Structure formats: structure tokens, C-alpha cells
Amino acid sequence: MTQYLKSEKITLRALEPEDIELLYRWENNSEVWEVSDTLAPFSKYLLALYIKNSDKDIYESKQLRLMVENSEGRAVGAIDLFDFEPHHSRAGIGILIGEPEDRKNGYATEALKLVLEYCFKRLNLHMVYANIDANNEASIGLFKKFGFELAGTRKDWIRDARGWKDEHLFQLINPED
């Protein structure tokens, strides 16, 4: 039996009400706002509404957020499918490993592997893509490891306190298409 969202190292699971404190901390960490295009803090009220409405399927909401849980059952991150477009058979992917001490432990690699299998074998997507800050070498390396190719660069796309930065668009076409 194929289990799309589970490996020996991690499980990708649906959001639970108990995740609100963790999401609140991660979503309000200004260090990650730049990659998530966030400009203001999230309230616990809004996060609770988001979790409450997360029961809608991806075809209705056009997005899916899954928590990345390690083998001990502790949530270490989240992976998102966004801008799901069934007609064109594509979706964007974003990954966050929430705490610095949980990074570089293979969680993002495992999460991306599982979600790609889910995208291509369960959702039958033709293509997935990721928008990555041109200076984010760790993310670029992760996506390239799975065969994502640079499809283009948006010049001066992201503005931060230091000025303008480029953003890369990486794509992966379903190898079975």
C-alpha cells in the first residue's frame, strides 16, 4: 500500500487546533516574512479561522497546508501547496522548517519528496513550481536536488530593508508526463 504523506523520518499531516501556538510563533517571526511575503503580524483569531476552514479540499480552496511532523510526533515545519490550478494542472510549493535547530536535519528534503509524490501520483499534476529568493542558496539547492530547473528570474522583485533582490522561478515537470 502506498502512503503518500509518510516516511520513516516524517509524516505530513493536516492542521489541528493544537497547532495554533506554533503557527502563531512561525507566522509572526519577522525573519521569515520576507520569504512568505508577509507585511504584518497574524492574530491568533485569524489563524484559528484558517485552521477551522482547512477542512476544505484543495479543489475548493486552491491551497493545502500540511504540518511536517518528525518521527517523535513533534511538528517541525509546514509545507504548502498554493495557487493550485486544476485546469492547467499545476501548483506552487513552499516549505518552512520553523526553528533553526530543526533545519539541516533532512526534514525539508523528506517533506518535498513526499509532497512531490502526492502532487504527481495523487493530484496528477503536470508541473509544480517554487518562487525562491535568488540569495537563498539552501532552498535553491534543495529544489535542484529534486530536478527543479530555473525557468526565469524576476529582477528586483523583492524589497527588504537593504534594497531590492531578485527572485527565481524554479519548475519541475512531472517526469511521467
Question: Tags for this entry?
Answer:
single chain; 177 residues; Aminopeptidase; 6 helices; acyltransferase activity, transferring groups other than amino-acyl groups
What this model shows, in words?
The chain has a single domain (10-173), classed as 3-Layer(aba) Sandwich (Aminopeptidase), CATH 3.40.630. Helix content is 30%, strand content 34%. It has six helices and seven strands, in the order E-H-H-H-H-E-E-E-H-E-H-E-E. The protein has helices spanning 20-27, 30-36, 44-52, 58-61, 107-122, 137-145; strands spanning 10-13, 64-70, 75-85, 90-97, 127-133, 149-160, 163-173. It has a seven-stranded mixed sheet. Strand 6 and strand 7 (163-173) form a beta hairpin. The radius of gyration is 16 Å and the shape is globular. The two termini are 23 Å apart. One of its GO terms (molecular function) is acyltransferase activity, transferring groups other than amino-acyl groups. InterPro entries: Acyl_CoA_acyltransferase, GNAT_dom. Keywords: Transferase.
